[in-house]
Amino acid sequence: MQDNAFFQAFSFYGRTTRLGWLVYNILGGLLLVPFFVGLHFGHQELTAIGFLIALPGLLIGFASHIRRLRDIGLSSWFSVFGLIPMTGTVMMFVYLLIPGKAQD
Questions:
Q1: Which long-range contacts (CB under 8 A, 24 or more apart) does 45-52 make?
Q2: Packing angle between helix 44-71 and helix 85-97, nearest 10 degrees?
Q3: Could you give the CA distance from residue 36 to residue 26 in angstroms, rounded to a whole number?
Q4: For the chain, which terminus, N or C, has the lower number of CB atoms within 10 Å?
């Protein structure tokens, strides 16, 4: 696997620190902006282009989430809680508070 930060953003392997997880989620969230702007203004072309830009953002967010769960010693299945509307937001703050486990 590459050690490059670009490839790490899309990787489901390894672990992510609290700061790394926060940075990757901000980056992934910024890639969602064009999609929501297109939806807000009702432009079909901008929405379609925004959707194509948003797909890597969703992948970055999901991959960093899985790596962060692995870092704090939880199963990747805990990522399912992110699909529940308010629970996902609360869990994001909890993941920022829990320090990572010592590496094996």
A1: none
A2: 50
A3: 15
A4: C
Is residue 6 one of the residues assigned to a domain?
no
Contacts of 79 (CB under 8 A, 6+ apart): 62, 65, 66, 69
**pTM as predicted:** 0.76
Maximum CA pair distance of the chain? 50
Average pLDDT over residues 16-41: 86
104 domain residue, yes or no:
no
Of 92, 99, 93, nearest in space to 15 by CA: 99
Residue 30 lies in a domain: yes
pLDDT band at 52; cut points 50, 70, 90: very high
Query: Which residues constitute the domain of residue 26?
Result: 12-97
Q: Which residues contact 65 (CB under 8 A, 6 or more apart)?
A: 21, 25, 79, 82, 95
